[in-house]
Amino acid sequence: MPVLACRVDAAVAPPGYATFTAGDSSLAAAVPFSSSTTATAASDDSISAKWSPAHSAALYRVDSWGAPYFAVNDSGNIAIRPYGSITLAHQEIDLLKVVKKVSDLKSVGGLGLQFPLIVRFPDVLKTRLESLQSAFEFAIQSQGYESHYQGVYPVKCNQDRFVVEDIVKFGSPFRFGLEAGSKPELLLAMNCLCKGNPEALLVCNGFKDAEYISLALLARKLALNTVIVLEQEEEVKLVIDLTKKLSVRPVIGLRAKLRTKHSGHFGSTSGEKGKFGLTTNQILRVVKELHGSGMLDCLQLLHFHIGSQIPSTALLQDGVGEAAQIYSELVRLGANMKVIDIGGGLGIDYDGSKSGNSDLSVSYGLEEYASAVVNAIRVVCDRKSINHPIICSESGRAIVSHHSILIFEAMGAAAPTTPTMDQINIPTIMEGLSEDARADYWNLSDAAMRHDNETCLFYADQLKQRCVEQFKEGTLGIEQLGAIDGLFDLLTEMIGGSEPARTYLVNLSIFTSIPDFWSIGQIFPMVPIHRLDERPAVKGVLSDLTCDSDGKIDKFIGGETSLPLHELDGDSGGGVNGRYYLGMFLGGAYQEALGGVHNLFGGPSVVTVLQSDGPQSFAVTRAMPGSSCGDVLRAMQHEPELMYNTLKHRAEEFCLFDAAVLSSSLAHSFHNMPYLELASSCSLTAMNNSGFYYCKEEDYNAALVECGTSEDEQWSYCVA
């Protein structure tokens, strides 16, 4: 049997590794491989090269997309800098310590929460809000602008009660308000602003019916600074009629449909054919209608929206300048204009590239954004000799994205499938091959001896396809097919120079927790939150728990199709009880509101963490377990209580001796989250009784006692 050989020109490092690979990992000569030799991708010196947290920070671009709120600390863990660039060293929060505190069992001082987990940092939220305010204040002062900035938070970005309440509280010193786009959003905004600054704006956007407008007018009666923004021409008549019926004088705004268009994915709502807003002629008709009703003085705000993630200040200035012209014309027509609402669009840099040519990035910071807005409005107003308006923005994504981190576990990884050459049995391969397939093998061998990699791969692929056809016809056994597959994979890896990405199973539903990745291809930074002082040795893709082929993450920042990861090794020394945690960052906007319950995987656990002066630099101030199996079943109109009773009676009928413990187990299942638990975290052991696995012995004995209660016990008696 001839020796089969191919040339490996260089070992290709995982994405971003090239800068840090020590030594020369190339193999200078052809590597013959037969049953007794195995190709090696890198030298021992290269594998053992010194790796530091700084290398990981650069590899995962943490300093590019994460600054000034996220960094890699000396322990190799992700650190949170709650106050941004002014955070002192002792104020940094080690994210792994937070995760450990939250996930440890209550018996050892933890909170016992299950993954996945959202960790909120209100200090980061407050810092983002203050930074936005400071950016506009600086631009206003430096340009001699004669009014002020007064922002609102669009609650659609994240309607969580505590997020909205924190924004109202943190924004109260500078009159920060809220924006609502539906009736329930308006109700929650009205409630939250009762504790806010009385001058804070309550901007009512979205399509409206009589009930919506009545609610907004009621808010005005409740002394909330409410503005009804007209999205459709028909809404003006409703406002006029209801104003008369309710005897309240409204403040009215209108949304203009600009000609300026944002060409990226997020610009679909902009331009003349956008979904929202009034055209020039519609604006003129609304002005005429208000004038005829004696309510033109109520028109005080102009709103527009170029689109989310505005990529550059050039586009921003173009749109704001156009809107300022419309504003000045409304002043000329007699409207009592006071506010220009520039909408959303303040973007964030998801991939750290600071590029104006990508939906994942923007080419400016807060200061440049504010300066461009102020300048565009000031120039038009000065030219038209009109008073400078109050500037309002609806910058939701930029406010909430950074403060929330999704943490999830890798539960397992697919083992490497590529065999070594000594594992491939050449005689086995040759058994049963057709004449054409044998010819392909000899041609493959000849090409390998000549180091003709392209021809080698051609005949390898042809050989594999012939063998697949033989297998389908029943003339080739599964052992021979497996050997051919192994040979093909080995050749591909050796000639290609790198291993294929391995699949890591993660305890997560992409559809629930990262819906934008699945729906619009939005990419978020993902990083192991620990072991960053170790060199990642694996290129991986992430597969979630759902029974759906779309439930995988195989696109990452930087255009990469894999993520550098560490081996899952309980003795790695860097993990927590052998666990491996990953974090998804910059996902605080939209993901929670848009997430569904595909496969009945519900929402994650949520904790709120504040910086403190204690020994760990943090305090967990709020903790909420994720949705239980009962919760998600109830959301789909099932009745968990009745389901439990049905199954309990079934257990009593068919499992007489084990009925009590089986019923207890069922109750636990209804109360527990739908996600997986590692054996080390759940209390299952090999203790077996009649083929059924129970909890630890003390839990089992307690269950026997507890489940021996009266027959009218409730389904929820067994708390998870």
TrEMBL record:
Matches recorded under InterPro entries: Ala_racemase/Decarboxylase_C, Arg_decrbxlase, De-COase2_CS, De-COase2_N, De-COase2_pyr-phos_BS, Orn/DAP/Arg_de-COase, PLP-binding_barrel
Catalyses which reaction(s): L-arginine + H(+) = agmatine + CO2
tRNA processing is among the record's keywords: no
Enzyme Commission code: 4.1.1.19
Example of a GO biological process term: L-arginine catabolic process
Gene3D superfamilies xref list: 1.20.58.930, Alanine racemase, Lyase, Ornithine Decarboxylase, Chain A, domain 1
Pathway in which the depicted protein is active: Amine and polyamine biosynthesis; agmatine biosynthesis; agmatine from L-arginine: step 1/1
Record-listed N6-(pyridoxal phosphate)lysine modification sites: K156
Keywords attached to this entry: Decarboxylase, Lyase, Magnesium, Putrescine biosynthesis, Pyridoxal phosphate, Spermidine biosynthesis
Active site positions, chain numbering: C547
Domain of life, per lineage: Eukaryota
GO MF: arginine decarboxylase activity
The Orn/DAP/Arg decarboxylase 2 N-terminal domain, residue ranges: 148-401
Requisite cofactors: Mg(2+); pyridoxal 5'-phosphate
Protein family (similarity comment): Belongs to the Orn/Lys/Arg decarboxylase class-II family. SpeA subfamily.
PANTHER family from the UniProt entry: ARGININE DECARBOXYLASE (PTHR43295), ARGININE DECARBOXYLASE 1, CHLOROPLASTIC-RELATED (PTHR43295:SF1)
Name by which UniProt lists this protein: Arginine decarboxylase
